[in-house]
Amino acid sequence: MEYNLIITTPFYKALKKVETKTAITILQFLPIITKDPYHSGKQLHGNKAGVWSARIGDYRILYYIDKNNSIYVTKLDKREDVYRR
Asked: What SS3 class is residue 54?
């Protein structure tokens, strides 16, 4: 089953700040999430329960999966910063 991908404004704004080569790698990874979101990342715990994280180099993509087969890509940041905010 393929999921619908919904990119949020904060993710898009963060992507525009990333160097071009890394941004291309991130964009190439997004279709992989739509095919198998449960194996493309790991589920977070604690105050981030229900959120999934995928690693692309030094960056992390945060997303969540809703019951209507949609994936909301909500955040992109470096590993040391992504879980803080």
From this structure: strand
Q: How far is 74 from 67, CA to CA, in rounded Å?
A: 16
Average confidence (pLDDT) per 10 residues, the chain, 85 residues: 93 96 95 92 90 94 93 92 72
CB 38 within 8 A of CB 72: no
Q: Give the residue carrying structure tokens 């790991």.
A: 42
Q: Where are the alpha helices (DSSP H) in the chain?
A: 9-17, 20-35, 37-40, 79-82
Instruction: Name all domains of the chain by residue range, CATH numbers in brackets.
Output: 4-82 (3.30.2310.20)
pTM over 0.70: yes
- Secondary-structure breakdown of the chain: helix, strand, coil percentages, each rounded to the nearest 5: 40, 30, 25
